[in-house]
Inverse folding.
């Protein structure tokens, strides 16, 4: 028990070092602080606890699929499941309970299935609640072509990192007079620095060579100009990573003509939304795209970005690939690279073979068949 | 007269009959008013970078075609603080302008000259036509999208300020007046050009008031055009659908920023921004330029090697000719461009070839259809033959025809 206490203390101190590292950026400190944390996390005797939100619709089925595969691959993760409540919790103003949020804050990692926001007023949307309460400032979406699933683009391999808290999605709109509406787009130095830091740290940690900042600073000179200034400041600290700036209309055109031109993309909120969905479209849609939200204090919440598909819920037809690949991203964040590689290879091999594919990829297998095929490939 | 008619007959009969020419021989259904053949003045702004190169290409082709337009050239560069007053006066007088790209300096505190032109002349609709060209292989087929984008307000209002050091705000303004008129223009365009569907692109799930107002205006106008299908799509889903299933889109109407992204994406999937025509139009004036805005100034290497793609500006000038009500010249220009691209021998770098701008222009001028130095005679020759046949039809027609064909073969 004493050793457990000691390990917890070391864990918390290293995360505070991570926090201070994020505030005054210094790459060596960041990378060195994350590895002791990971070493604490990945000791096989103490499994890591992770929060799991199965979600609605097809959520529970695909979450079950993930749990099965992780069990077979002997990943040292213990799941703490939380469900969306039936009533609005007054402490969070939404259907998510305070306990769920506390659990994510405690565990520092989580996996979220698709959640349908119930229609109605008087409460915040679920995604917005998670984002605000956990201060999730960066959304990371690695987009790579799945070998064996042919789309029109075969050699996509890029990562989009999107600032998640401010920008055009601040939600500050008002009607000036009848028929005239104003919406505010806010860019702050703090948020831009944060996401730029994370982008370069990610690029370095994953061996990426280039970071491109996407902007429209020729028109929105002060706002995107501030974003670019912050990116340039951070770029100076990482001299071995090539940094470039691309105007967003150029970027869109280049992405659809030749996606190999890009490596890591970092952008403000609105452009990030559009570009990350565009990249998801390049590789086959939201049903195959992993995604991970990074928050203050080293929190990582991986999520499946597709909808909850209520029409196929419970019929064992859902495609668990998005949630599985997101779980793999979560494992990489925890530095469990060998397990992550093993599971990712199994998934890619299963899809490449083409014998077991769910309906949305053009096959006829059920979720359980697909899961079993992946387990066989492990 | 016989010799002249023979030479004219020979000239008529030696035209090679390619499929493109079938459209060229349009029957005389366009009835101009007397005096419409007088040359029209068009303001020309060469612009920066590759702008002068491609506008020169247009001038050469217009020259070769003997099109009834003459250009009033004005030098405007992106670094100027304002567009010179004389240029705006000229556009107000001529009502039509052709323009190369104007570079907007980054972050410099100079507001974009493109935006200034659009606001001063109230060119509220920007139109880009993205379509697959025959002979140009792209990853997507069946693309024929027209993106109509609101050009004056939205995110490009240029109203930014620093609240405190490190916090900057930018205002996005949406008004009912502008949203309504762009929706009206989109539906009217669809109606006049036989288009079946209009799609409104928005992000109203997040920006409920601003894009909500835009959608409301679109819905109101849609009710007045029951023959045209209308639907709405969120902008991120739209981009995803554009790269996977672009054939579902027909006419798209969007606010300012989304229109920029959607137009460039659609141009990219259909062949690149070097070939897509477009323009900005308002109630009184029109400016034609390369459709999608990416790459319209080009880069240093393209400028040095003179390998800019003139196709986009040539097709935009064809749109301009149709706007000026010269449909026959417009048809000939478009057919010539189509023929050059179909042949595939002269293509610039962005289409996968190695030609320079001048080589493409020469290829267009040398083929039939564009350069027709005898055009005034051609018209009179048609009348001549018709009259000669009508005179002799009652008498012996056969000897005339035999004599004509004998003369041809000599």
């Amino acid at each position: 028990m004493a050793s457990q206490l000691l390990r917890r203390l070391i864990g918390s101190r290293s995360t505070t070092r991570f926090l201070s590292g994020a505030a005054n950026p210094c790459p060596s400190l960041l990378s060195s602080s994350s590895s002791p944390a990971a070493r604490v996390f990945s000791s096989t005797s103490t499994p890591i606890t992770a929060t799991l939100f199965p979600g609605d619709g097809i959520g529970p089925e695909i979450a079950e699929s993930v749990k099965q595969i992780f069990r077979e691959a002997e990943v040292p993760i213990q799941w703490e499941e939380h469900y969306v409540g039936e009533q609005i919790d007054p402490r969070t103003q939404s259907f998510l309970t305070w306990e769920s949020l506390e659990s994510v804050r405690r565990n520092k990692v989580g996996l979220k299935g698709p959640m349908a926001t119930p229609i109605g007023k008087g409460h915040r949307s679920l995604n917005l609640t998670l984002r605000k309460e956990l201060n999730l400032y960066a959304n990371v979406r690695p987009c790579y072509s799945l070998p064996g699933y042919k789309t029109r683009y075969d050699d996509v391999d890029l990562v989009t990192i999107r600032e998640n808290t401010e920008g055009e999605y601040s939600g500050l709109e008002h009607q000036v007079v009848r028929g005239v509406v104003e919406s505010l787009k806010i860019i702050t130095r703090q948020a831009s620095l944060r996401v730029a830091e994370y982008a370069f740290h990610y690029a370095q940690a994953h061996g990426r060579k280039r970071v491109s900042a996407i902007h429209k600073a020729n028109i929105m000179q002060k706002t995107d100009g501030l974003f670019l200034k912050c990116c340039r400041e951070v770029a100076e600290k990482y001299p071995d990573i090539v940094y470039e700036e691309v105007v967003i209309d150029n970027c869109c055109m280049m992405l659809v003509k030749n996606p190999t031109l890009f490596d890591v993309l970092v952008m403000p909120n609105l452009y990030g939304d559009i570009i990350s969905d565009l990249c998801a479209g390049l590789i086959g849609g939201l049903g195959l795209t992993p995604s991970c939200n990074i928050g203050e204090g080293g929190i990582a919440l991986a999520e499946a970005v597709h909808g909850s598909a209520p029409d196929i819920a419970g019929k064992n037809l859902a495609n668990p690939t998005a949630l599985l690949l997101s779980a793999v991203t979560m494992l990489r964040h925890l530095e469990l690279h060998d397990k992550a590689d093993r599971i990712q290879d199994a998934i890619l091999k299963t899809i490449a073979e083409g014998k077991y594919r769910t309906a949305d990829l053009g096959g006829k297998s059920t979720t359980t068949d697909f899961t079993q095929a992946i387990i066989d490939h492990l | 007269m016989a010799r002249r008619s023979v030479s004219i007959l020979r000239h008529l009969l030696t035209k090679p009959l390619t499929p493109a020419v079938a459209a060229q021989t349009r029957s005389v259904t366009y009835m101009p008013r007397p005096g419409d053949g007088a040359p029209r003045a068009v303001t020309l702004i060469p612009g920066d970078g590759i702008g002068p190169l491609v506008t020169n290409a247009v001038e050469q082709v217009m020259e070769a075609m003997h099109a009834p337009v003459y250009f009033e050239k004005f030098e405007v560069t992106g670094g100027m603080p304002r567009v010179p007053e004389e240029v705006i006066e000229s556009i107000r007088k001529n009502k039509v302008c052709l323009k190369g790209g104007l570079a907007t300096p980054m972050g410099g505190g100079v507001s974009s000259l493109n935006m200034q032109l659009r606001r001063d002349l109230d060119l509220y609709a920007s139109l880009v036509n993205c379509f697959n060209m025959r002979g140009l292989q792209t990853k997507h087929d069946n693309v024929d999208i027209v993106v109509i984008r609101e050009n004056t307000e939205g995110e490009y209002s240029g109203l930014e300020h620093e609240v405190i050091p490190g916090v900057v705000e930018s205002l996005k303004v949406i008004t009912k007046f502008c949203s309504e008129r762009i929706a009206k223009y989109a539906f009217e365009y669809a109606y006049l050009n036989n288009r079946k569907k209009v799609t409104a692109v928005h992000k109203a799930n997040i920006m409920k008031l601003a894009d909500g107002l835009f959608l409301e205006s679109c819905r109101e106008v849609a009710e007045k055009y029951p023959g045209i299908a209308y639907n709405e799509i969120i902008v991120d889903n739209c981009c995803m659908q554009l790269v996977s299933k672009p054939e579902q889109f027909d006419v798209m109407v969007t606010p300012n920023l989304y229109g920029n992204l959607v137009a460039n994406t659609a141009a990219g999937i259909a062949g690149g921004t070097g070939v897509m025509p477009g323009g900005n139009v308002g109630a009184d004036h029109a400016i034609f330029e390369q459709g999608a805005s990416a790459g319209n100034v080009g880069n240093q290497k393209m400028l040095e090697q003179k390998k800019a793609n003139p196709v986009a500006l040539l097709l935009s000038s064809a749109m301009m000719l149709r706007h000026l009500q010269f449909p026959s010249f417009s048809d000939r220009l478009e057919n010539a461009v189509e023929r050059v691209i179909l042949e595939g021998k002269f293509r610039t770098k962005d289409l996968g070839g190695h030609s320079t701008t001048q080589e493409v222009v020469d290829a267009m001028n040398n083929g039939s259809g564009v350069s027709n130095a005898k055009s005034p005679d051609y018209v009179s020759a048609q009348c001549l033959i018709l009259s000669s046949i009508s005179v002799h039809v009652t008498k012996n027609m056969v000897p005339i025809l035999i004599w004509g064909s004998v003369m041809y073969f000599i």
